[in-house]
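[[Local backbone shapes]]
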Amino acid sequence: MGTEQSELLQLKNLGMASVNILRAIGVSTYSDLQELGAVGAYLRIKDRDINVSKVMLYALQGALMDVHWNDLDPQLKSELVAEAEKLATENA
């Protein structure tokens, strides 16, 4: 396993399946994920027709914040979903 892959695996909420999905969209490091942001990464995953739920969006945000996705503030979860829906509509 490469250093980049193990870096992502060290993040909260991300297992091998999530890391493989991230690598498929060009995210190989924490910095890549940080630059793209949780919403950007989530939308890029959806654009690749990879079937993921909103939990993936929460997991990505939690990984960036070093928080388990289930512990994210409900208001933040709502804001993430709203932002993702807005951007998806704008880019459709």
About this structure: The chain has a mean pLDDT of 93. Residues 5 and 28 are 7 Å apart (CA to CA). Helices lie at 3-9, 16-24, 30-47, 54-65, 74-90.
